[in-house]
Amino acid sequence: GHEHGPVVGISLPLPVPLMFYQLFFKFNFSLSRYQRGALLTITSGPGFHLMLPFITTYKSVQTTIQTDEVKNVPCGTSGGVMIYFDRIEVVNYLVPSAVFDIVKNFTADYDKALIFNKVHHELNQFCSVHSLQEVYIGLFDQIDENLKLTLQTDLTSMALGSSYRYSAVRVTKPNIPESIRRNYELMESEKTKLLISQQTQKVVEKEAETERLKALIEAEKVAQVSEIKFGQKVMEKETEKKISEIEDGAYLARQKAKADAEFYTALKVAEANKLKLTPEYLLLMKYKAIATNSKIYFGNEIPHMFVDSGSAESSVKASAAMDILGEQMMDRD
């Protein structure tokens, strides 16, 4: 915008041709000069400048960051409720090199067109398509950013985006009718109670969930311990089974070895006995068995009772055997 900064007028004793010039000193402003009412293309920055009184005039234009305040902006919502924004602050900055173009297109009071009128228009556009609930509560936190974006977009569409910039927009809470405000306060109070109730319920649910998780963890712990103990018992039984199998295997091996040895011994005895089973040996054993008899029969026919009459050789062998047996019996006596 434009603000009149400190201006210092100095009168100097000058030659007659220059007596009508005055010296001006400006801080943080650019000067837009007018000669006979026409805007000059040359602008002056801060410093000392000379002008011709009554012929050359000027407008001071601030070229540092400034804040313009738009006050008491009326706004009608989509529901027909009229509300008022007490104050809207727009932080803006004009590039010094663009002073001539801005003043030429919008005059030195450019902030009226680019800020005040724009803010009124855009804010009413926003309110007209939103309800009181949205403007006052639901979307209020987005108004400032949306307003800044809309203003900057308009500047860009006019090819002024690099010449004039909006740094920030701050919007105060709008004033609403008293009856509606009381309803909102009551609604906020009820909402607060509801939130407290919901939070309390969440706390109770959280505590119950914590207890449930604790019980679940404890049950899992018990189950894991039982599983470990069961696993230990299974391992013990498997170990005992393996030991028993090893012992049974060893016993079976011993018994098999013993049976094999006995079988081998019996086999060898049988083979030895088989070798002994000659007719002579059998006859000898036969006579030995007779010799053990406690009854002895004497008579002329007794020697012939074991004699095979069909073979003379057998009779001879039987006679010899009887002789041997008789000798053994005599020796025994």
UniProtKB/TrEMBL annotation:
At the top level, the lineage of the source is Eukaryota
Keyword set includes Chaperone: no
* InterPro entries attached to this UniProt entry: Band_7, Erlin1/2
Classify the protein's membrane topology as the record does. Answer: Single-pass type II membrane protein
Q: Which GO terms describe its cellular component?
A: endoplasmic reticulum membrane; protein-containing complex
Domain Band spans what residues? 22-188
Q: Which residues form a coiled coil?
A: none
Task: State the Pfam families in the record.
Answer: Band_7
Q: Where found, per UniProt?
A: Endoplasmic reticulum membrane
Which UniProt keywords are present, listed alphabetically?
Cholesterol metabolism, Endoplasmic reticulum, Glycoprotein, Lipid metabolism, Membrane, Signal-anchor, Steroid metabolism, Sterol metabolism, Transmembrane, Transmembrane helix
Example GO biological process = negative regulation of fatty acid biosynthetic process
Task: Identify a single GO molecular function assigned to this protein.
Answer: ubiquitin protein ligase binding
Membrane-crossing segments per the record:
6-25
Give the primary localization class. Answer: endoplasmic reticulum
Keyword Lyase: yes or no? Answer: no
The family annotation for this protein states: Belongs to the band 7/mec-2 family.
Q: What is this protein called?
A: Cholesterol 25-hydroxylase like 3
